[in-house]
Amino acid sequence: MKTGDRESGTAATRLGDGLTRRGVIAVLTSLLAAPKPSSAQQIPAKLPRVGWIWAGRSAGNPTEVAGFRQGLKELGYIEGQNIVVDYRFGEGRDDRIAAYVAELVQLRPDVLVVFGDPIVREVKRLTTTTPVVMLAGDPVGSGLVASLARPGGNITGVSMMQGLEGLAGKRIELLKDVLPNATRIGLMYWPGNPAMAASLAQAEEVASRLDTTIRPFPVQPSDELEAAFSAVAREGVDGVDIEPAFLFTSYPQETGELLLKYRVPAVSELRRITESGGLVSYGPNLFDTTRRMAYFVDRILKGAKPADLPVEQASRLQLVVNIKAAQALGVTIPPLILARADEVIE
Fold it and tell me: What is the pTM of this model?
């Protein structure tokens, strides 16, 4: 062996000795302490993302949010942990909706949750691929789905229509029961909602049967709320049916207060209006309905296609009576209606 080789071998021996005596322990300790790729350094899976949009206000804890969150919770979803929800609120301004819808579509969510026929229609215009869970009035009549049983396309969810008659006619009957001498009933609505043509026709047909006429009061989202009720009061109608509209769903408390201020007995779909001054409300239980929307989200996230999920009709209707408002307006609620009521506010 050459001198160089001998020196090299000696150095290698010394290095080997060093590892044997000191280095082996350090190396093994290091290897044992290193995180395992399969456990301690797992890459977190992509969380499912839901886009959520409603025309109303974000203040407080809106039923639309509370019901949906409860539904998610019951299905095992916790926001920020195993699901992400991007919320958008129109705050009562329909001019914001198109921009918000476009923004959510561009985020490429796994599911879009959408409230109201006009917003669903805007979503449908922008995407035919992103799955959509809707809460809508008349999705078939509005052309949003092919049918309730076979919606087709990328949209499913819950309809607020109850059979062929719908609820507008039933609310007119209810108001007439409460105000048997009424001969003119106002109907406040947003003409931009395509489902309202059918609702208005239903209301007029029922009113005619009851020897009553309907006085339509179209309102726009940009209208002044108090001016709208001032106009109703000046017209001298005996009562008013308030159909769902941006203006009222965004300001339910103020709507109820103005009904008392202008002494207008009113029936509506929204319990929140009745709470603050409306006479009676009759419509789907909104908390239960929005909670049910989470079921559709869960099914889609697990692989179901909207086209294969039949649109459901809101099944639980709720009659709420405000005795305090009735007393303030000098109205006597018939005992039969009180007996039927799911809730009486005193």
Answer: 0.78
